[in-house]
Automatic annotation (TrEMBL):
The lineage of its organism: Bacteria, Bacillati, Actinomycetota, Actinomycetes, Streptosporangiales. PANTHER family: 4-CARBOXYMUCONOLACTONE DECARBOXYLASE FAMILY PROTEIN (AFU_ORTHOLOGUE AFUA_6G11590), BLL7811 PROTEIN. Gene3D superfamilies: AhpD-like. It comes from Actinomadura chibensis. Residues 14-93 form the Carboxymuconolactone decarboxylase-like domain. This is Carboxymuconolactone decarboxylase family protein. One of its GO terms (molecular function) is peroxiredoxin activity. It comes from the Bacteria. Pfam families: CMD. InterPro entries: AhpD-like, AhpD_core, CMD-like.
Length: 149
């Protein structure tokens, strides 16, 4: 598959803004392992091969185990995740699949995340979910292929 275009030049200011958002997220108090799992899971849901490949590789480089990477699509049934990670993954899935529930993100999902994360970190998680959904939509639209990282 060949990419349709690169947005780096024609949307330079928007691209820089997205990178600035990533800087904020990466400087937040949310553990990088959790951020990587959220990015990977959302990218799986959205079918973004480019982002799945990139975030799996980044997670692996950050010390993530194969067991956890291979199991993230079935995190509810896998015993490899902390309660905090499970809360973040549930929030990520609900926010990504908002059309699946007339209430949007259910209160129990939100409350569980809020029980595990301080307000600033919860806000950073929300921004992470929004950002990876945006990146997925950009890469899927442009047909950016999964590439070696």
């Amino acid at each position: 598959m060949q990419p349709r275009m690169s947005i780096r030049k024609p949307a330079a200011e928007g691209y820089k803004a997205m990178l600035a958002l990533e800087g904020y997220i990466n400087a937040s108090g949310v553990p990088h392992a959790t951020l990587n799992l959220v990015r990977l899971r959302v990218s799986q849901i959205n079918g973004c091969a480019f982002c799945v490949r990139m975030h799996a590789a980044e997670a692996k480089e950050g010390g993530e185990t194969d067991e956890r990477l291979w199991s993230v699509a079935a995190w509810r049934e896998a015993p490899f995740y902390t309660d905090e990670e499970r809360a973040a993954l549930a929030l990520a899935e609900s926010a990504t699949r908002i059309a699946d529930d007339p209430a949007g993100v259910p209160d129990d999902v939100w409350n569980d995340a809020a029980d595990h994360y301080a307000e600033a970190d919860l806000a950073a998680l929300v921004m992470t979910i929004a950002a990876i959904n945006a990146w997925n939509r950009i890469n899927v639209t442009l047909r950016n292929p999964a590439a070696s990282h």
